[in-house]
């Protein structure tokens, strides 16, 4: 017998209270496949376990929420991990001041819908107070570290969830699920704790905190497949739309108050979408007709560029750009 | 023309295969640079088309700047600037790739010096380990060490990749003799299954595509084996273990009385209606409901994360273990285990530590270090006094509270633990409860009996 009447963990029912129905007469099968979990089920289960470990062992966790797809998936997993109770964490958004308006709208809608608490750390306020200086190239991504660390310190957050994935970048490939940060927020790759089995060691001294990455083992394709399976709503800019863009350093950037375009950079209308969502000054759009989740997944699966290679100017700065930023306390 | 539409038809067909939900295989590789491990990993990533254009461009750029002629696939697994500049490697790097048949997580554990602790870390979560040997050298000391670690960590599947077959004349007898020798040794350690594959990582023989040089070999390529090896063994045959992570009590108008125990099944299957015991209290109840992330189910199995509701209102909190009433482990304050020491400061007899087991952390004292084990020949060294980084040893630990540990042989997750430094929180030691190795006959010697001085009788 190869079929099973065991219920599987498929997409969550919208009501959240569906029952398995006909499985009262569950039959045993000798086949191991009766109890198989798909790769998405396995990754979901692992991420939920990580969320619950943090809830059980830390005093003041917070979820970094940018309105990007990875942080949206994190929030979705957190909602599932604690249902029917509310998520026992607040959200923290580091606002560069150059965010896509569609993403900010999405953020505020989600916060209201799930009655979450939102902390905003504003790069603009640090610039206005003279504590940060605008860079010559206009990008604010590297400027996020100071407001982030300030918010962690003033909020006394001891665990900070980030949406980073190890497949994104080679410095991230070496990061732990529980990543200890010193009192300056710094990451020392040589002093990481070995992580064995599913035993996460979150002990830390006062003033230190732990960055936690529940999506460590997910790839970009997993994230999109999961968004499709769970029918998670995303900001519209992830899907193909017509937008005014101009070319800089080989990327399509959107004009805006952040300082583009400069003289000689011609604006044109193109059909584009975003593969990642970050600061407008360094997040590029890709040409695309993918207007549905299925089309996006097909496009990602066929792509011959990594998402960061395709869309992030900040990682093109040098071979070790991400490593250096992480050492300073970046996401 | 858009970017999406410029991808080839072949690309679209591949993409269609990647859209399905498949299964996940976690595996680890063991072998030194000299064995061609980096080349094998690079070849797996490259030939399975998991290396994207910008990554390959970066590798080509780096290869050129280091004076190499072609792209050095070993650089695909190269890591941080700190490693490049200091010529060191930082334990485990994780790699991700997929084929239409399966998703893979590779724990890539480089490094000569810290080898044991790196491989122990990588093997702890692996379903499969690939052990590389150089066909010209055969089974050497290091190979035996790798086999011992795989056996100790109870990695379910072991692959022996006999590499550099091109330099051994693609000779069947060379391969057969190495495979036979290794399989016999692994069997003596209790490794249940070895799959041996003759390969050349450099040329690409039998890594992803079948070799044209070894028609005497009819088995799978390395990738074919990774894609088809059975990973979903039947959890119904395992003991059910459910460590409680967190108690969910909404206390809202909609759910005034909901009380659920959140956790991930460490092993086995739990069913609604099943009588259970809660440890360490020993109280019993019956499973009233199981909520599997948004839907109510009749049964749940490892490694699902679920929320369990019981018929009785018991005092249960994080750190408790829910187990079948007729098959619950006996809590004990005395832990006998095989450990791998991870930290640069030694582990000593009398040392006060924290022991983290599933979701519970308790105070503990290292009572005895019975022996240190030389992984090359598995010879025991009695009473070493201390264990330094990368040492494997037998220890006895006394805990401040009783813990429901299983023998590691019975359950990897409820038989494993960490020792933590209470002063600075460092992870010191990884431990596996019970006997170290299965017997040569494959039988498991389980239990918390004290180690015999002659305890390494293989």
Automatic annotation (TrEMBL), chain A:
Its EC number is 2.7.7.4. Belongs to the PAPS reductase family. CysD subfamily. This is Sulfate adenylyltransferase subunit 2. PANTHER family: SULFATE ADENYLYLTRANSFERASE SUBUNIT 2. Residues 1-28, 312-331 are annotated as: Disordered. Pathway: Sulfur metabolism; hydrogen sulfide biosynthesis; sulfite from sulfate: step 1/3. The lineage of its organism: Bacteria, Bacillati, Actinomycetota, Actinomycetes, Kitasatosporales. It comes from Streptomyces pini. Gene3D superfamilies: HUPs. The gene is cysD. InterPro entries: PAPS_reduct_dom (IPR002500), Rossmann-like_a/b/a_fold (IPR014729), SO4_adenylTrfase_ssu (IPR011784), Sulfate_adenylyltrnsfr_sub2 (IPR050128). It comes from the Bacteria. GO terms for biological process: hydrogen sulfide biosynthetic process; sulfate assimilation. With CysN forms the ATP sulfurylase (ATPS) that catalyzes the adenylation of sulfate producing adenosine 5'-phosphosulfate (APS) and diphosphate, the first enzymatic step in sulfur assimilation pathway. APS synthesis involves the formation of a high-energy phosphoric-sulfuric acid anhydride bond driven by GTP hydrolysis by CysN coupled to ATP hydrolysis by CysD. GO terms for molecular function: ATP binding; sulfate adenylyltransferase (ATP) activity.
From TrEMBL, chain B:
It comes from the Bacteria. Residues 22-236 form the Tr-type G domain. Keywords: ATP-binding, GTP-binding, Nucleotide-binding, Nucleotidyltransferase, Transferase. Transmembrane segments: none annotated. It holds the Pfam family GTP-eEF1A_C. PROSITE patterns: G_TR_1, G_TR_2. One of its GO terms (biological process) is sulfur compound metabolic process. One of its GO terms (molecular function) is sulfate adenylyltransferase (ATP) activity. InterPro entries: CysN_GTP-bd (IPR041757), CysN_II (IPR044138), CysN_NoDQ_III (IPR044139), G_TR_CS (IPR031157), GTP-eEF1A_C (IPR054696), P-loop_NTPase (IPR027417), SO4_adenylTrfase_lsu (IPR011779), T_Tr_GTP-bd_dom (IPR000795). It is an enzyme of class 2 (transferase). The keyword NAD does not apply. Its EC number is 2.7.7.4. This is sulfate adenylyltransferase. It comes from Streptomyces pini.
